[in-house]
Design brief:
Blueprint (H helix, E strand, L loop, with lengths): L1 H14 L9 H8 L4 E2 H8 L3 H13 L3 E5 L7 E5 L1 H25 L6 H14 L2 H16 L1 E4 L5 H15 L4 H8 L1 H6 L4 E7 L2 E10 L4 E9 L8 H15 L4 E6 L4 H10 L2 E3 L13 E6 L1
Parallel strand pairs: 7-8
Antiparallel strand pairs: 1-3, 2-3, 4-5, 5-6, 6-7, 8-10, 9-10
Helix pairs in contact: 1-7, 2-4, 3-4, 5-7
């Protein structure tokens, strides 16, 4: 089981795009809990041989994650501590460890048994859903629950363009109407009574959506986009729900949107949010790519 978890651990760190070897976890984690430690202290704490600790320490030092400093009183002794690079990497690693722990707890179950019973449960549950996939699920749950939707802020105005241009360029060609709405979003959206919302994860802006105010309580949902690295985490769902709620707060009676049928996941999202396709033969879109109109009555 330990060999299986170690192998899966390599895939898990790869999922987070972190260059870290699971076999070096014991020494790195111990040093993250202390200002500095010596080889003997680490070996005693971790119940490892001196050569085992030295092997991990050398690997971590080679990666620049720890510093090895000669003792002032005893120059034969060396003190190990996290390097600046190691300290900067620590928060990201703590997220990984949190998801790993949640996955193990779930696989063992709410009522842990003996060691052998727990190992048997792990083996059975991992045969149904591999460890790395369980951790990936926990990562999605953690990120999804931590994402907050906030109103437009001047400090994030560049993010509105960054996210939308990246999304459009991935699937289509940027059109004049795109540039006008994105580059002049304050005058085209906000100053006319519309709104722009952002999805924020920690200090990062990872998604956005806007409502353009029309006549008679009609709003158009536009420029919904999510950073590629955070797609699949229900960020679009949160943005869509927040936009609908905002439309109601603005006394809107209907929200419509224009899209393209190529965007299957997006169309499915709109349907789950309550939007339905409508046929408007006389409707003239500003966008060449538009081949579907959907609307939702509030």
């Amino acid at each position: 089981m330990s060999e299986y978890i170690m192998k899966q651990g390599e895939d898990i760190y790869g999922l987070y795009r972190i260059d870290f070897q699971p076999q070096n976890f014991p020494v790195f984690y111990a040093l993250s809990q202390s200002e500095k430690m010596g080889i003997m202290e680490l070996a005693e704490l971790l119940q490892l041989t001196h050569p085992g600790v030295i092997q991990q320490a050398k690997a971590l030092e080679k990666m620049g994650l720890i510093d090895s400093i000669q003792g002032e009183d005893d120059r034969r002794r060396r003190w190990l501590s996290l390097s600046q690079k190691g300290k900067e990497l620590l928060p990201a690693l703590q997220d990984v460890w949190q998801d790993i722990q949640a996955s193990l707890d779930e696989a063992v179950g709410p009522q842990p048994g003996t060691l052998l019973e727990n190992l048997d449960r792990l083996e059975q549950n991992f045969s149904q859903l591999p460890f790395a996939k369980r951790v990936a699920q926990k990562r999605k749950e953690r990120i999804g629950s931590a994402v907050e939707i906030i109103d437009y802020r001047e400090e994030y105005k560049q993010e509105f363009g960054r996210i939308n241009y990246a999304w459009i360029e991935k699937y289509f060609t940027i059109e004049a109407a795109d540039r006008e709405t994105i580059d002049q979003h304050i005058s085209k959206i906000l100053d006319k009574g519309g709104c722009i919302l952002f999805a924020r994860f920690g200090t990062q802006i990872i998604g956005t959506v806007a409502l353009i105010k029309g006549e008679d309580g009609v709003y158009e949902l536009v420029k919904m986009g999510v950073d590629e690295a955070y797609q699949g985490y229900r960020v679009g769902w949160k943005l869509g729900q927040a936009a609908i709620k905002k439309g109601k707060e603005l006394s809107g009676r209907r929200i419509f949107l224009e899209s393209n049928k190529r965007l299957g996941p997006a169309i499915n999202l709109y349907k789950k949010l309550g939007f339905r396709e409508v046929i408007r033969p006389s409707f003239q879109s500003e966008y060449d790519r538009c081949d579907i109109i959907m609307e939702l009555y509030l």
